[in-house]
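Sequence in, structure out.
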Amino acid sequence: MARRRFLALLGAGVLWGLLPGCRRSVAPLTVAAHLWPGYEFMFLAQREGWLAASQVTLRETQSASESLQALSDGRIDAAALTLDEVLRARARGVHLSVALVFDISAGADVVLARPSIRELKQIKGKRIGVEQSALGALMLVKALQAAGLERQDVQAVPLTIDQHEAAWQRGEVDVLVSYPPVSSHLLEGGAVNLFDSRQLPDTIVDVLAVRQQALEHKRDAVRRLVAAHLRGRNHLQRNPQDASYRMAAHLGLRPEEVLASYKGIVLPDLAGNLRLLGGDRPALLDSARMLSAVMYQEGLLPQPDSLDALLYAGGLPEAEHED
């Protein structure tokens, strides 16, 4: 390059990013997450020094709603959410991709019934308590399908999770779509498990949702966050007593309660995430398509999600070459 051309470009600021010491620093990837065992490995990794704060900033929120609001406002780059929450955010114009699956419900979400109701087909004409959420709708729709029933064959009773146990104790519902700790208490009291999320594999999942713009500009930080989560997850598998001790205080649980909190959920390893997010037919894409259809049917989405750019496997350690 001619000296005059070089100086002209330098004067315009074009070459500053190429000069040693002049490259612009990239701000840390900012990630929001509320308290949940499946998300805890990120926080464990940062406490243990496996995840540098200069690369990733973790912001603890009080709820998924707070994390969603921060995404909508553009205050964060990513959030730990359920898949249905990701679809709702995308419907509102927040361009998100799933870069990691934290956990999969495998029995934690249940359809409970009174002891006199022993089979799914017996729920016909019954009062069914259910949250007005995508996951509540999905569990109810799939339970009805398994029973060979239609929505009009039952009486849906809208209940928030904090109302579940009281409504059950007062006899206001015959069947309840719920999850721990409420479901655990009711099962101990004699409720019958008619249907649970083991019959919906790879469907009810918690994921790392990342703004697509952040995937372009902060890919390295995304990869480091994913690797740190997997390291924490592997530490729990290999040394559960030590890991539970280290996570207990932040989760507000006793160490023995930490291990119990993972009952009913699957924690995908690297191979599991590659199966869910990567390859020609990622397993999570079919689940997302089904969930999107149910949400649209229930009026929770204005239209089915296109699923374009929904999944991103480039953050997984063995997929680093796939840019």
